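step=predict obj=DUF4116 domain-containing protein n=217
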Amino acid sequence: MSDEAADDLDWNDEDFVLTRVKASGWDLRLAPSKMRDRRRIVLGAVRSEPFALMWASETLKNDTEVVTLAVGKYWDSLGFASTERRDDPGILSIALKQTGAALQHASKRLRGSKPTVLEAVKKEGIALRFASDKLKLDKDVVLAAIRSNARALLYASEELRGDVDVVKAAVSQDSLLICYASEKMQSNPEVVRMVKRRQFDDLKHFRSSPKKARIAL
């Protein structure tokens, strides 16, 4: 139904609006402001479509039950929650169980919380990009991220891209990541040996897989 046709309907009737948003949460955008501030209507909307949280009133974007319901259905809806709810460790944890990328919606405080960031990077190493600068300097956090996804090296601090343990953890999975290590590490004999070993292993695996070779050709 077009927005023009919707104008002819009774959007000031709570039961009507509730029926509409239960069928399609997107219809919350058509409701007047007072309806977007009705808790049962917004709950009905986000139950149908978690992104409907974007059209909820500021009060309900700060409602724990409403936000928890939306985030539980889809992590990215956390981006529409209030500042206070994005600073709620419990709600963020619900999002992080779906993907470490949810860290991008966390408050500055939580992006600087080591336990929170560890939870995120263990789920998805690339989430390191959303961590605080301080935690990008934390070797435990960076190593955990790299173990999850070697490309997390790209988001490590300059200091840790010059750390032999960190660089070895990355290049042992992907030899090309040596390009993102410090100049000192790029000429470190131990690291260079590991890179060559990784490249040799990759080549051996490639040659032993005719199907992959045909695809490459």
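step=describe
Confidence is low (pLDDT under 50) at residues 212-217.
step=end
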